[in-house]
Write a structure and sequence with these properties.
Layout (H helix, E strand, L loop, with lengths): L2 H13 L7 E3 L4 E3 L2 H15 L1 E16 L5 E15 L5 E12 L4 H17 L33 H10 L4 H10 L10 H11 L2 H17 L1
């Protein structure tokens, strides 16, 4: 698998849920996406898709200026190249971005590198603010027949469970193995209400990340 196919696969994975601007800068009054949110999303998407990101700082500029409190504040600009490498065939491409940050202590460089990572990922993988499955994102034209909705009932038969897991982008057998590894009965042996509860959890961001990490660890061990 080439690096461009791997990038496309990561983009498809992250497009399901997006990464919203959930953090708030109270001082300047704006919302933003935190680097931790991006890291958490990529922590399972990258290994699942066979891609690694390797940083290389090729330039650094630092300026010092007096702060309002009478101390010194440091501004650092980093010129960073990120190698995106396919773990399958070793093919690679480079994403180059600048990261800028200010700090009154010794954290300006670290903050600038974090900013460079966040924006390299957002730009390389076209990470949306919301998932593409958001119903409000679609407005059918007047007269057009509405698209059929895949509705899972409040109770959940085994075949509904399998279809819903596949709709989330996972294989049913992986989800079943994950559930058993957690000490729960196999979904086929559960009641429909128990399968519904499992499905509700796996539909959350936390559930998707846990399942993704389980799949990566299982595949690495095989």
């Amino acid at each position: 698998m080439s690096v461009y196919q791997a990038i496309s696969n990561v983009t498809a994975e992250l497009a399901r849920s997006g990464i919203g601007k959930t953090k708030r800068n109270a001082a300047q009054g704006f919302s933003y996406r935190g680097v931790d949110d991006v890291m958490q999303a990529l922590a399972w998407a990258l290994p699942r898709c066979g891609l690694v990101m390797l940083p290389r700082v090729v330039g650094r500029t630092e300026r010092a200026a007096p702060s309002k409190s009478g101390g010194t504040i440091y501004s650092v600009i980093l010129d960073v190249e990120w190698d995106l490498v396919s773990v399958v065939d070793g093919s690679r491409t480079v994403v180059r971005v600048h990261g800028e940050a200010m700090d009154a202590g010794d954290k300006a460089t670290t903050k600038a590198l974090s900013a460079a990572y966040k924006y390299a990922a957002v730009l390389a993988f076209s990470i949306p603010l919301e998932g593409i499955e958001d119903a409000d994102a679609h407005s059918p034209e007047a007269g057009a027949a509405p698209a059929p909705l895949a509705v899972v009932p409040m109770t959940c038969a085994q075949e509904d469970f399998t279809a819903a897991i596949q709709a989330l982008g996972f294989r049913a057998e992986d989800a079943e193995a994950f559930v058993v590894a957690k000490g729960r009965p196999h979904p086929a042996e559960m009641t429909s209400e128990q399968r519904r509860a499992v499905l509700d959890y796996l539909s959350t961001d936390k559930g998707k990340i846990e399942l993704g990490r389980f799949i990566v660890s299982k595949e690495s061990a095989s």
